[in-house]
């Protein structure tokens, strides 16, 4: 389009602001599209303008989108976290931005207690808690090592992790193995039952998966997780709160290799029963897949694309391409959703987990239209899910044609959140999430929907403005 | 989480009945809300749910499996249990019936940003009228999406204007404004615009009411307009350097419907005007510059020059209610304007005869009115100036401030002539004379009661095609005792003659 098009024929017009002008245009027979405009948060207009004026922005965001859309994800190994992530005894990873013990939420504390017990670094929960509070151990965000962790996201050296690689960049990402539902470490539970399951996962599940994955790799058949994500989105999963199809496809693809690797049949039966009984098993593969997609967009000067959204149960934090590894945080919100048993809103902890990496990469809440089975989380109707996904196109930079949504005529999922569009539209990213109990040790209490606090995006825009080159 | 001993517990397993977990969480919440029910859970008998049910105090048959649905209710009586089960049946059945709206495929959400609206609609033009500090984001979004943009908003920071116009220049797009009140594109009036016939004259205007005056007079002379592109009042300032003027001239030069181009502007920066003149000389289409300033032709004179070039006879510019013999008055001239350029033009004309005119948009800084906009000599006020429109509509829509000032001038013994502009067209007040005519009559009565003669002169900018009805508006104003002119220059000269004729 150029100025000549403007003067050629009767124009159609977009109207933003005073309705009187749009009305006057309609009275002249002009086709007018009205914008449902709301002002950006107070005090941000100067920074927003500064960022939008950054001459690098358009090209930087185009590049960010191109890289996200080109990224791939193959499962190349299953390894001990101590080796894969260079984790020393007494050092843990956790979800979300950095946090101290004093500010840590119940579920994160519970998960750290459980991990200390699992590692044999304390004789009981009280001792574990005392040592954690005393600074005996250290912890840092999973994202600082290129990893992601669901809910509390606690990874300890003796746990096993999936290792995924993006063949287009050689970049690697990791995630722990999914423990199942209910009273599990990632929801902050740390009872004997929890630790016992973690031990079984280390002794049986991890090695079995490793032998299968290595067998596949040796015969040149790495498991293409992005292909599985593309298929699961077409099969009714959105990849965050629903991973049923993905879990089954993963088993289908890997099982022959585990069999060929000679895993003991009885142990194999335990493994298959465990995975089959947990519809969320694939989430821990979808998350590092998404981490590889978003990492591909990282560190492009001038880019306003979000590369990380993560929560530690206290703070919600984001990272943006143009500002590297800097965190922008605000208070984590409590999800709005439905509860297990007779738990209620008062039992729920504020939002927690690295799993919002799925939305950051363009699935999860952004692919809500693909998952009619979970739309009731947003109030009951399939139409709402379609609207939710359509709304996300307004805050993203690209559409991922490899992840087509059937009911939207296979339109690609909205991909690459742009902080300037979030501020400009007032539309916050839609996140589907689980809910952990507020009290350490309780576990899962429900699931629902949440959005990040606007502060994260305001902070990012201020920092991008400060980093923008001098004009002129 | 254990049930109390006195409750009635009901647990049943429905074999092979599958309903997804989210739906069942909803069903559970509905059942739990039934009167008399203390706890309820309807769930598939997965390992997780069995733990939850056990935790709630229910005993579940050992053979229940993940493909079976468990209904567990704890209530105060058997009747309450029965009621709960009825509610449960209804809730489960309703799952298959779908939503209440019938709009299964959802709606396309309304666009929340200008950028998105342009992307979705493919519109070549966006009109942005949000508060000034936010205009940049919306206008830049329009440019990002590939459309030109008219920024009506005022109070837009100067550096934002320059950035927008540089970006537009890089991308072959046009930014009209900020503070662009008027444009006519492809026959469509944007913002404030008169209804004029289409024709060969292309206008680029760093002036809203200047453009309205110019196009209205052209129309009155029987000549039409191809396009009228607004540039914003600062475009020909030193800081902006005529960025949009060049873009508009280039576009009009390339437009086959445009045979002659006119640039209408408030007093420009001399160097910018010289540059523009140089650029205009390189175009294939002849360009006339109507740049207001001391010793420069008026807008009316500019129109007459273009008419001459087109070989069209100059008409007698219409007037209404102008007496054959002008009354003799003595005192000060007070101009109360809605249009900034009309105010500028009137000050330039009046200053030739009357000398210094005080104003809130003064010709020279030392002529600025103090904060209360009061002075005992000749003065002219632009009520459309940014500082007077903050937080309220433009005086072309909302006459309040101007009417209050008219009343005040009527009571001021120093005031002998009040000069007002009235602007018709799209976007303007639906019936300005409806408010103004009674106010004029009242003002003249106030003065007469005090033993003074108050002359009211009105510059009426409009065409016979404007929705307000030019003749009816003029007639109402003339009937109230005002002398009405279609040319602002003529109105001003008449007002000046009244004052200077009666001068001491």
UniProtKB/TrEMBL annotation, chain A:
Gene3D superfamilies: conserved protein of unknown function from Enterococcus faecalis V583, Enterococcus faecalis V583 domain, NAD(P)-binding Rossmann-like Domain, v583 domain like. InterPro entries: AllG-like, OXTCase_su_AllG_h-dom. This is DUF1116 domain-containing protein. It comes from Nocardioides zeae.
UniProtKB/TrEMBL annotation, chain B:
Gene3D superfamilies: NAD(P)-binding Rossmann-like Domain (3.40.50.720), Succinyl-CoA synthetase domains (3.40.50.261). GO terms for biological process: tricarboxylic acid cycle. One of its GO terms (molecular function) is succinate-CoA ligase (ADP-forming) activity. InterPro entries: SUCC_ACL_C, Succinyl-CoA_synth-like. Pfam families: Ligase_CoA (PF00549). Signal peptide: none annotated. GO terms for cellular component: cytosol; succinate-CoA ligase complex (ADP-forming). Residues 336-496 form the ATP-citrate synthase/succinyl-CoA ligase C-terminal domain. It comes from the Bacteria. This is FdrA protein. It comes from Nocardioides zeae. The lineage of its organism: Bacteria, Bacillati, Actinomycetota, Actinomycetes, Propionibacteriales.
